[in-house]
Amino acid sequence: MNDLDGTCSIFACDLRNLLCSEIDTPEDLAVISSRIREIESRTVYIGFSTGILHGGHINIIRKARRLGRLIIGVLSDEAVAGYKRFPLVSFADRKAMFENIAGVYRVVEQKTLSYRENLERYKPDIFVHGDDWRTGFQKPIRDEAASILASYGGRLVEYPYSKDDRYAELEAHTRADLAMPDIRRGRLRKLLGIKNFVTAMEAHDGLTGLIVENEKVYQDGGAKQFDAMWVSSLCDSTAKGKPDIELVDMTSRFRTIEDIIEVTTKPIIFDGDTGGRPEHFTYTVRTLERLGVSMIIIEDKTGLKKNSLFGTEVAQVQESIENFSEKIRAGKKAQKTRDFMICARIESLILERGLDDALSRAFAFVSAGADAVMMHSRRKDPAEIFAFLEKFRERDKVTPIVLVPTTYNTVTEEEFRVRGANVIIYANHLMRAAVPAVQKAARNILEHHRSSECDKDLMPFSEIIRLIPAPEENT
Ligand code: SPV
Ligand code: MG
Q1: What's the Cα-to-Cα distance from 340 to each of 133, 151, 361, 363, rounded to whole Å?
Q2: Which end of the chain lies in a sparser environment, N or C, as judged by fewer CB atoms within 10 Å?
Q3: What ligand has the least distance to the C-alpha of 236?
């Protein structure tokens, strides 16, 4: 009571956090009764993304509960996956957990990091948040919430934020769980189930893996990060100074995956080139499953594979529908887990065989058991990809479609999504960003016979090491 109203000098006797107060006289009773009525007529809103409750959460719920009838907004799986990390506890379970806390009046879904939708819908009298959001990435979200509250006379109550070591510990355990193969492997399928649209960025070693894992931007009251990693044959080969012709053998490709896996948690999509002979492909599938990889993409080429971006400038042979379907079937049969995905990549547009050929292959490969299809193109104009999306979706509404828009790069993710694509892979961008920077530094030092001129272009190692988790963070 005293927290609520400075003029109300009642010595509250708060029994087990129930709304209790000492009443000695009829006047006390009248004051308390009217206060309780007032409190019960108010609504209070608080948002949670957590899947694990600890004492700090319970304390804040109890405090908020004393302000009025408590509505808890539980962040949707999609919103949690976007701003934080893949939710280990599903929205339905998190909602049930909050519904079962004494004193909680109602639990609702909050679909975005921004509170706009729910503040406008429920118009709570009081909105509770920790005061840590006054600075940093949450500030625009706070400003937005404050102005919505002001528009209808709602009140913002901010409790001092205290960094909770218990929470940091739980979070570290959760992250460690996410890195385990059995959990990691199934996350691509689950993410597609949650969002129906994911983005993947190329990673070719532990460091680029960490960059894909941790880079995040905050925009328009939301957060954006890559959902997955692409282990590209082109970049893996390039990093080893070798051409992209299946020369880097699988054992070496698996080492790259292990380097990445050791320091990250996001799902991995592996570029399996042609997949090799069906007899070899079955071993590749099982090894990838054991490692915790989520999906392999194999392309319908045969003989000496060259990179698709060369198109018809080099001799490349497309595999027959029958043989490639056989390889897919062999892979699906060898697969031991339910979650692993085999994606069929179709090279018809790269080899200029036309849309009909691309479509008939896509449908045939789905019939053979492919969990997804990737349609590749090296044109700047996205028209042939748009035509494929439209025609494929006329007959198949569910099979995920993967695109690699390296050349037709003016199309936004949203436009691909609206047209029915599900996975967008940025296939080589970190490698292409690194090479000119590295080359420039080497030349600069050669030209100046010392390194001082190139220093301004370089990141100090004191910053680079911040990208690398300390040993205790990895336990
Ligand atoms: C890769 O990244 O290795 C790919 C995509 O296969 S592309 O280079 O566009 O063929
Ligand atoms: Mg490749």
Answers
A1: 39, 50, 22, 20
A2: C
A3: 1
**235-238-242 Cα angle (round to 5):** 135
For residues 405, 408, 411 and 414, what is the CA-based torsion angle, rounded to 10 degrees? -20
Q: Which is the closest atom of ligand 1 to the Cα of 297?
A: 6
- DSSP class of 247: -
pLDDT at position 75 is 95
3-state secondary structure of 171: helix
Both tokens assigned to 225: 């990060």
Rounded CA-CA distance 361/181 in Å is 32
- Please give the C-alpha separations between residue 174 and each of 48, 82, 191, 215, in angstroms, as whole numbers: 17, 17, 17, 19
Largest CA distance in the chain: 97
Q: CA–CA separation, 26 vs 443, rounded Å? A: 88
Please tell me the residue having the least CA distance from ligand 1 atom 7.
308
pTM for this prediction: 0.85
What pLDDT, in 10s, does the model give residues 195-205?
999 999 999 99
Is the CB–ligand 1 distance for residue 236 below 6 Å? Answer: no
Taking the C-alpha atoms of residue 370 and residue 373, their distance in angstroms, rounded to an integer, is 7
Task: Name the residues annotated as catalytic.
Answer: 244
In contact, 241 and 435? CB cutoff 8 Å = no
Is it the case that residue 147 has pLDDT exceeding 60?
yes
Closest by alpha carbon to 44, among 143, 156, 126? 126
Mutate to test the pocket of ligand 1, among 231, 298, 301, 307 (most ligand atoms within 8 A of CB): 307
Q: Which atom of ligand 1 is nearest the CA belonging to 233?
A: 3
Overall residue count recorded for the chain in this entry:
475
Residues 6+ apart with CB under 8 A from 451: 444, 445
| Reduced DSSP (H G I as helix, E B as strand, rest coil) percent helix, strand, coil of the chain, to 5 | 50, 15, 35
User: Which ligand has the nearest atom to the CA of 202?
Assistant: 1
Query: pLDDT (tens digit, 9 = 90+) per residue, 269-288?
Result: 999 999 999 999 999 999 99
